[in-house]
Amino acid sequence: MANFRSKLFSLTGLFLLCAFTSQSPIRALDWTVDITADENDPGCAPGDCSLREAIAAAGDGDSILFALPGASPWTITLTGALQQLSVVNDITIVGPGASQLAVSGANLIRVMTVQVGASVSLSGLTVRNGEAKASGDKHGGCLKVLGEAVVSASRFESCQAWNGGVSSNTPGGDGGGVFVAAGGVFSGNLLVFVADVAGVGGGALSPPTVFAGGRGGALANAGSATLQRSTVSGCTAGAGGGPFGPGGEGGGIANLAGGVLRLESSTLSGNRSGDGATFMGSSGADG
């Protein structure tokens, strides 16, 4: 009997060990950005980990932190050849403070897109000088949200949606700072939007075409957006395209068809809708 009980206890212990092991959560990892250069080497090695590399390395549930060299403030300037940052997993990015660290698109590229099915929680950064450059991907100068973005204690500054050119035959891009696509979710708390601009409408003189300026200088929402305890100031919707295009609507915020928007304890001040284009004394309507 003693031998039988010993075997029973051993089998029971093995079962409990297997059950505990199968249910133990995988520990989330911290990735530390420790250089300001924008590069895309394989991996994210200590002493040589860029923000781009950290985002590529981070898996679901992981966090990205910063330990940058030298004294603040720091600027991470993205390289046009490497294109925008793309978030494809559920990650958290924790910056040292909006006055301490800026991520810039250098007026060459959008700073970041959160892809469908992905989620980013971002705090303590300034995102600036992002610009959407392609007519086929023209919305959201600094941030385009296809999945979910939760952003706090951050700034969106001098961001620019796509500007239509001569013969582009398309309206200007929406959402100078942030564009939330249908199905996307954006939640902002303690944010500042300043000097963000939607895109100028396209157009041509011969034959004359009329395309409107983009909507929502700071934020254009076609999904679900919440803005709490935030400030939107000095932002502008897009000007109309030549020769007689109407100006864009929503100097600060444009809630587009299908969008659900909640504003709480926030300030919108000094924003302007877009001016209509003027040609030989005639002009399109202002936004």
Topology:
Elements: H1 2-23, E1 30-33, H2 51-57, E2 63-66, E3 74-77, E4 85-87, E5 90-94, E6 101-104, E7 112-114, E8 119-123, E9 126-128, E10 143-145, E11 148-157, E12 178-180, E13 185-194, E14 219-221, E15 224-228, E16 231-233, E17 253-255, E18 260-264, E19 267-269, E20 278-279, E21 282-283
Parallel strand pairs: 1-2, 2-5, 3-6, 4-7, 5-8, 6-9, 7-10, 8-11, 9-11, 10-12, 11-13, 12-14, 13-15, 13-16, 14-17, 15-18, 16-19
Antiparallel strand pairs: 20-21
Overview of this structure, please?
With 287 residues, the protein is mainly β. The chain has two helices and 21 strands.
What's the gist of this structure?
The chain has 287 residues and is mainly β.
Poorly predicted tracts of residues: 1-22
Largest sheet: 13 strands, parallel
Describe the global form.
globular
Instruction: Give the terminus-to-terminus CA distance.
Output: 90 Å
- Give the rounded overall mean pLDDT: 90
**Count of distinct strands:** 21
Structural class: mainly beta
Radius of gyration (Å): 24 Å
* Portion in beta strands: 25-35%
Query: Helix and strand string, N-terminal first?
Result: HEHEEEEEEEEEEEEEEEEEEEE
Assembly level? single chain
Q: What helical percentage do the residues reach?
A: 10-25%
Helical region count? 2
Features:
287 residues; mainly beta; 13-stranded parallel sheet; six-stranded parallel sheet; 10% helix; globular; disordered N terminus
